[in-house]
Amino acid sequence: MTVSAGGGAIVGLDRAVRPLLPIIVWLTATFAASAQPRVVAVTLDGVVHPITVEIITHALAQAEREGAAAVLIRLDTPGGLLESTREITQLIVASPVPVITYVTPSGGRAASAGFFILEAGDVAAMAPGTRTGAASPVLLGQQMDPVLRRKAESDAAAALRSIVERRGRNSELAEKAVLEARAFTEQEALKNRLIDLVATTEAKLFEKVSGQTVKRLDGREVTLQLDGAVVSEYQPSVREQFISAIADPNLAFIILVLGALGIYIEFSSPGLIVPGVAGGILVLLGLSALAVLPISWLGVALLVLAVALFILEAYFVSHGVLAVGGTVSMVLGALLLVQGPPEMQIRLSTAIGVTLPFALITAFLLGLVIRARRRKVVTGSVGMVGEIGKAYTDLDPEGRVFIHGEYWDAVADRKVPAGARVRVVAVDGLQLKVEPADK
Questions:
Q1: What is the DSSP string of 359-415?
Q2: Residues 222 and 282 occupy one common structural domain
Q3: Is there a contact between 380 and 366 (Cβ–Cβ < 8 Å)?
Q4: Which one, 211, 224, 285, 305, has least CB within 10 Å?
Q5: Tally of domains in the chain
Q6: Where are the beta strands (DSSP E) in 134-261?
Q7: What tens digit of pLDDT does each residue of 272-318 get?
Q8: What backbone torsions phi and psi does residue 123 show, to the nearest 5 degrees?
Q9: What are 11-43's pLDDT values in tens digits?
Q10: Is 77 within 8 Å of 114 (Cβ atoms)?
Q11: Using CA atoms, how far apart are residues 418 and 407, in angstroms rounded to an integer?
């Protein structure tokens, strides 16, 4: 009986606890998840520009807000604007959350501006088959004045050295990436202490750095506990995604030219509406994309000159000289439009591929418009002037004439016999003023 009573108590307890099992499981899972370290990851896989700065800023803010153990910046960039690079390195250095910079995937690179960002991380890592370096400053993709080059290189090298030395890495070799445009594979970078480790995957990366103590540039020491970390992806806003997508100067130039062409079609053929609306939207999109890039006013002036030359070609017979000048001006304007390193500029293939069709279409449309305006009016009362008809009755001085299959009242300055040919010289209401038509 005792056993039976005990068994009944156990069964009763089981029945009481069973409804609470889902809640217990949920609380256990929640506690386990909250106990895992969290890493906010952000991907930088394009050219570095002001929108990139905005994305990094928001990712670091999210990590601080969520109490993340670290921020992971994935790098695969050809470089970008030096000023934007400086802003990003400053954000990384000042971040209250440790930052891991990681060149990935295999075949990727952290060149030029990417090298600065890589070295700014509390932990710098690379995946197998990646490369970094070649961080010499470039102005407009052209040869710089020797003195200006030395100044730019010295400034960039000093900024890089101030970070690399405090990270305990090889500052002397890092300077050569700037002063001599040296580039390194992941093994060369690891061997020469430009990075801290090579990791095949992010999980391996977290496993290797877990337990390491990093010294922040403000003097604080932080021990990273990232084994089994949960990665939380930073999701760029719609604006950031959109501007980043069209901020490629080549795409921005194409959008701008297509928009200008649409607006011109609307002005040359009023009432179509669709080309005008689409053109206006494309022009605004192109300008918004170019607004985040450093623009050269020389490039803008050349593009304006190109449009002016295309218009003049339709008004004056230059045997193609003005059209050729407009084409050359537009190509040069496109190449000089963006001030920055080569990866930030409009490619020659894009400039030529967009300019030639634009020149041909614009010249063709302008020619149609000018010829239509110069063509003699053939409708309405104005279209009667100059027409030849026949006197149906004697004009002495008034009578009737037959023109365009119609009978008209007419008046002549002198007598015209019936059957004679007459020419219309003016229209006065419903009466024509005519004169004898000389054979």
A1: HHHHHHHHHHHHHHHHSPP-STTGGGTT-EEEESS-BSSEEEEEETTEEEEEEESS-
A2: no
A3: no
A4: 211
A5: 4
A6: 183-185, 197-198, 213-215, 221-223, 230-233
A7: 788 888 888 988 888 887 777 778 888 889 988 988 887 777 667 66
A8: -125, 125
A9: 454 555 556 556 655 544 444 444 578 999 999
A10: yes
A11: 13
**Selected residue with higher pLDDT from 348 and 369:** 348
Q: Are residues 233 and 253 in the same domain?
A: no
Integer Cα distance of 229 and 195 in angstroms? 22
Helix or strand holding residue 156 (H, E): helix 146-166
Residues 48 and 69 in one domain: yes
Angle subtended by helix axes 50-66 and 238-246, to nearest 10: 150
Q: Examine the fold and report which residue of 353, 374, 395 is the final residue of a domain before the chain moves on.
A: 374
Instruction: Say if CB 336 and CB 299 are below 8 A apart.
Output: yes
> Letter for the amino acid at 208?
K
Using CA atoms, how far apart are residues 354 and 339, in angstroms rounded to an integer? Answer: 20
**Segment 127-143 mean pLDDT:** 72
Coil, helix or strand for 338? Answer: strand
Cα–Cα distance between 339 and 139 in angstroms, integer? 7
Q: What is the pLDDT of residue 20?
A: 59
- What is the torsional sign of CA 160, 164, 170, 172? positive
Burial string for 341-377 (b: 16+ CB within 10 Å, else e) reads bebbbbeeebbeebbeebbeebbebbeeeeeeeeeee
Query: What CATH number corresponds to the domain at position 187?
Result: 3.90.226.10
Domain that holds residue 427: 382-436
Q: Give the end of a domain, one of 239, 266, 293.
A: 239
Closest CA to 85 of 149, 135, 140, 153: 135
pLDDT of 383 above 90: no
Cα 50-53-56 angle, rounded to 5 deg: 155
